[in-house]
Amino acid sequence: MTTVDGFEFDASATVWRLAARSGPVTLDFGRDIPAGADLLGREKELMTRLIACNQALEVRAHHEAFTKLVGLAASRRPGEPVTDLVAADLRRLVAATAPGKGHQVVSVRDLVLAWDASGIPGLGADLVALARINDAKVPPAGRAVAMLCPNEGSLSEAEMDRVVDGLHAAFKGGAIALDNYLLCLLATTIVIRPLQMALLKVGDLVARPPGSESAYVLSVPRVKQRGPVRGTFNDVDLNPAFGDLLWQQRELAIHEARACGLPEEQAALLPGRMRSCSDGSPAARLPDLAGHMSRHAVSIRVSGALNRLGILSDRTGEPLNIFCLRLRRTAATLAYASGWSLVEISALLDHTSPDVCIAYVERSQELFTRVAAAGGKRHADIARAMLRGRVRNRPTDEPAGNPDGEAVH
To answer: Shortest CA distance to 268 belongs to which of 174, 324, 198?
Structure first.
């Protein structure tokens, strides 16, 4: 059988080991799940249908949601295998879900709706009805931002300043390597997604001729778009200091590619560490992405480097919990507070529609004050200077660094 990414695998196997554009993905159907054979077979039939038209990570999320729901359903008849899933199981999950973990309920609801759409039996009609009417009372998108959650919501301007200052000091003191420093800069300034960082190649960074308006342009692959991976790009003008550091990394990446026998134009700009040049892993069997990190590896390296700075939260007094999505939330919140339009924020976050940003930026004047709206202008101006108002959607076959590019939203 073939996945949507074109990777062949044995669908009859108990354990699926899949290659995906974001990295290797494993689904284990043989682990201890307290469900009857019929229900397990139906769930695997559903996963088999989904893997043909959905990303492997999405299918794995459905499988994990099934495991969670079955675990809760098992409490209805202790000691007996689960033979069906009903509304009471979803309500039990909602009751047990801690604040800030509403995504777990969303995952299960999505599984139920996908299962019902497939026509495969195994779900109670009351469970499907509950999922359809959203009676699960799932927290709305953007709640972590709207409630200024100290663990998952936007950082304050003061917190963000300390994170950036601490990052620069750590690099200057030799406490953080160049590649990790650059990953963190991409996450805190251009605020691109981990998968976009993982997909960058050395050819995506172009040095412009002397006298140009900007010294470097970075062509960032767009994601969550229709069409092939690395099919369209956003051109981002970089300031000289940032561009010089990325150029140093480019030279290092080219050297590593040559040592591994990879074509220079296919070399990852920010390659993974501690790997063999031909390790036989699923990722290595996707030749155009050989040497690239998975988006999860990027996320771990960014959050690990920033959390090791030990920056304290103004609200809890504890070390900040920093991750890539939280940095994107922060950029959107502070930019909106300083007067950016939804269209501009949509371009900054690489969203297809400005409507997607509403969950990030719908807030009251009270929240503006709490996030330090006046101070927010500094962070927004940094981001605007990085983008220079010239983020532009570019197809694969158009040369990078077109000086006549215009903002396209």
So the answer is: 198
Question: Which residues partner with 218 through β-bridges?
Answer: 205, 236
pLDDT tens per residue across span 64-75: 989 999 999 998
Say if residues 235 and 219 touch (Cβ distance below 8 Å): yes
What's at 160, amino acid-wise?
M
Say which amino acid occupies 240.
P
Closest CA to 386 of 202, 142, 189: 189
3-state DSSP call for residue 20?
coil
C-alpha 97/C-alpha 104 separation (Å) is: 8
257 conformational bin, left if phi > 0, alpha if psi -120 to 50, beta if neither: alpha
Please name which of 356, 308, 300, 298 lies closest in space to residue 329, comparing C-alpha atoms. Answer: 356
CA distance 318 to 302: 19
CA distance 94 to 69: 11
Q: How far is it, in rounded angstroms, from Cα 82 to Cα 71?
A: 9
- Give alpha helix (H) positions in 260-317: 295-307
Q: Report the C-alpha gap between 178 and 204 in whole angstroms.
A: 18
- Global pTM value: 0.60
Q: What tokens appear for 234 in the block?
A: 């956003």
What does the block give as tokens for 28?
A: 């284990």
DSSP 3-state of 11? coil
Residue 83's identity, in one-letter code, is T
Closest CA to 336 of 101, 175, 157: 157
pLDDT (mean) for 46-58: 83
Give strand pairing partners of 235: 219, 392
Compute the distance between CA of residue 176 and CA of residue 168 in angstroms, rounded to an integer. Answer: 9
User: Given pLDDT bands bounded at 50, 70 and 90, which one contains residue 280?
Assistant: very low
Contact 196, 391 (CB under 8 A): no
User: Pick from 266, 263, 220, 216: which is nearest to 241 by CA?
Assistant: 216
